[in-house]
Design goal:
Blueprint (H helix, E strand, L loop, with lengths): L3 E10 L3 E8 L5 E8 L3 E8 L4 E7 L2 H7 L4 E3 L1 E4 L6 H13 L7 E7 L8 E8 L20 E6 H10 L5 H13 L5
Parallel strand pairs: 4-9
Antiparallel strand pairs: 1-2, 2-3, 4-5, 4-7, 5-6, 5-10, 8-9
């Protein structure tokens, strides 16, 4: 016998859904587990290979503030995939909304579970090149969504040093920086 979800009890429905799942294990034991569900997301590390910089965002995030008093995080461009649009389309849309970049090509770098012990969230990871000419808007996020995004163009060498020092605390960004280091070590 395989694992089986026997019951789902909704707890909350808003930006995310929270449910409690009752699960029968292969040996017949019954478990109850909380699950957070808000959809599939993208994260993209946009980098300029000529100037050897990446365009990142700084923004307030309530969970790190609640858990550690951290007022802002340094992150890769990210966002929720809307209405089943292709992940690549979301990556391009979020880059334009958040940092004002029009990205032509996005290169897949993985599809990962973000927090598999709690959340259904899966993240499509992308790398994308840009030049100063690709800056077509101010960025900063969509008006009315309360994102309060600050652009943070950062040297790739600084990102590598921070990765090595263990001070990149956004897992998406850390994963994308390390992937870029493996694929394009000449940039670092």
């Amino acid at each position: 016998m395989a694992y089986q979800i026997t019951r789902i009890d909704p707890i909350h429905e808003g930006w995310c859904k929270l449910v409690v799942a009752t699960i029968r294990t292969p040996d017949g034991e019954m478990l109850r587990r909380e699950i957070e569900d808000h959809g599939t997301v993208i994260a993209v590390l946009a980098y300029d290979p000529e100037r050897r910089v990446a365009m990142l965002v700084r923004q307030f995030r309530p969970p790190p503030f609640f858990a550690a008093g951290q007022a802002e995080t340094l992150e890769a461009i990210a966002g929720v995939i809307d209405d089943e649009e292709p992940a690549e389309t979301t990556a391009r849309r979020e880059a334009e909304e958040e940092v004002g970049l029009r990205l032509e090509t996005v290169e897949p770098a993985g599809l990962v579970w973000t927090t598999p012990g709690l959340s259904t969230e899966r993240t499509h990871l992308f790398l994308a090149t840009y030049t100063p000419a690709d800056r077509v808007a101010e960025g900063g996020g969509v008006e009315g969504e309360g994102e309060d995004i600050t652009l943070a163009e950062t040297a790739l060498s600084e990102l590598a040093a921070r990765a090595d020092a263990g001070t990149l605390d956004d897992l998406k960004l850390l994963t994308l920086v390390q992937t870029l280091r493996l694929r394009r070590p000449d940039l670092f």
